């Protein structure tokens, strides 16, 4: 049963544990809240996750968006009971051997990723990573599909098509590209000194191609590109409004990266960070792992979601085609997909159990 009717707000928050506390409920019922991002600490078992997402979705109408970072490899929040997905780099390695097989497997990886999350009530994953691996960024590393932007575009397009078939939109990150900087934006503010022409010729290729294919969402990087703008991309009207919206024609939702990260610190306190990100063109801002900052933001932010942002947000809700893992394991597409991806680093113990 759905709770009171109230429009979604521009803030995505995290929660404390495997069930909702009274403080969690208070924050999630705030008019400024629009979604929840889950972490490993929020997961204990498949049934628990389904109960948690059902409770979050039932709090209000329209339902809050439930998201997770579930890319595969070292960034996969839910493991027991889920297929352990390979790092995206494994698809790139396959591409170097067999292009058609790599596209085929990427499609199946996207389908399994989305279908399993959907069966547990999760609306979206912040995936895929579209960064070009230049061997510089340890925080990206094997999360990147390839070092060739054209290979990334082809593999990501197949992956996104698979996710769409599984009932989920895709969120490309980290616009316009995090792969050329060594610094980790979780801990410092990375700077990329390249020209726009260099970025456009490489890093923007996957974003441009995926936008043309109907990418649902984008997450900008907490990286400064001083030859284009002196603000990080997620706080830059040049990057978000002029380049992403006007030049690339992107009409999906823009999620900020976590405003608690050090890469966002140049914009001030959490309220100033949120105001800067929303003013620059983000539709939804993330505040994670800092409940006190979340409370300050909810208390002090003055921002109403414009109608176009509400429409973009509504499109991100999952399209639940299969409601449980029991039903999913009876689905021929799913079983075929598991078989197809079984040869890229998965062991028998990596298949879902419940």
Structure, explained:
With 354 residues, this protein is of the alpha/beta class. It has a single domain (11-16, 61-344), classed as TIM Barrel (Alpha-Beta Barrel). 38% of the residues lie in helices and 11% in strands. The chain is built from 13 helices and ten strands. It has helices at 22-28, 46-58, 89-97, 99-119, 149-165, 196-201, 204-212, 237-247, 270-280, 291-300, 307-314, 325-328, 332-341; strands spanning 11-13, 33-38, 65-68, 70-72, 75-76, 124-125, 171-175, 217-220, 253-258, 284-287. It has an eight-stranded parallel β-sheet. Strands 4-5 form a two-stranded antiparallel sheet. Helix 1 links the parallel strand 1 (11-13) and strand 2 (33-38). The two termini are 26 Å apart. 53% of the residues are buried.
- Beta-strand percentage range: 5-15%
CATH class: Alpha Beta
What is the radius of gyration?
19 Å
CATH fourth-tier homologous superfamily: Glycoside hydrolase, family 3, N-terminal domain
- CATH architecture, by name, is Alpha-Beta Barrel
Main sheet, how many strands, which sense, barrel?
Answer: 8 strands, parallel
Tally of individual domains: 1
Order of helices and strands: EHEHEEEHHEHEHHEHEHEHHHH
The first-to-last residue Cα distance is 26 Å
Q: Tell me, what's the shape?
A: globular
> Largest sheet, order of strands side by side?
6-3-2-1-10-9-8-7
The percent of residues in helical segments reads 25-40%
Per DSSP E runs of 2 or more residues, the count of β-strands stands at 10
């Amino acid at each position: 049963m759905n709770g009171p009717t109230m429009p979604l707000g521009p803030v995505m928050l995290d929660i404390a544990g495997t069930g909702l506390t009274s403080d969690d409920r208070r924050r999630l019922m705030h008019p400024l809240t629009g979604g929840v991002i889950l972490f490993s600490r929020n997961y204990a078992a498949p049934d628990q996750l389904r109960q948690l997402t059902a409770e979050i979705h039932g709090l209000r109408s329209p339902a809050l968006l439930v998201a997770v970072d579930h890319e595969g490899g070292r960034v996969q929040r839910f493991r027991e009971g889920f297929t352990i997905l390979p790092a995206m780099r494994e698809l790139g390695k396959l591409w170097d051997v067999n292009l058609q097989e790599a596209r085929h497997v990427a499609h199946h990886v996207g389908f399994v990723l989305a279908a399993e999350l959907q069966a547990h009530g999760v609306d979206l994953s912040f995936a895929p990573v579209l960064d070009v691996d230049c061997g510089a960024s340890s925080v990206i590393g094997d999360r990147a599909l390839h070092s060739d932007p054209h290979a990334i575009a082809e593999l990501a397009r197949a992956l996104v098509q698979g996710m769409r078939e599984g009932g989920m939109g895709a969120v490309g990150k980290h616009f316009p590209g995090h792969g050329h900087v060594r610094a980790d934006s979780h801990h410092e503010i990375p700077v990329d000194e390249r020209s726009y022409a260099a970025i456009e010729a490489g890093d923007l290729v996957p974003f441009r191609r995926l936008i043309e294919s109907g990418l649902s969402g984008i997450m900008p990087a907490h990286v400064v590109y001083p030859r284009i703008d002196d603000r990080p991309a997620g706080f830059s009207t040049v990057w978000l409004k002029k380049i992403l919206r006007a030049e690339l024609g992107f009409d999906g939702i823009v999620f900020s990266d976590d405003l608690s990260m050090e890469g966002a610190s140049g914009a001030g306190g959490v309220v100033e960070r949120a105001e800067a990100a929303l003013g620059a063109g983000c539709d939804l801002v993330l505040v994670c792992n800092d409940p006190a900052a979340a409370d300050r933001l909810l208390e002090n932010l003055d921002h109403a979601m414009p109608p176009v942002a509400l429409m973009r947000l509504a499109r991100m809700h999952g399209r639940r085609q299969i409601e449980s893992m029991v039903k999913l394991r009876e689905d021929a597409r799913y079983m075929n997909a598991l078989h197809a991806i079984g040869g890229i680093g998965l062991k028998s113990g990596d298949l879902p159990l419940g």
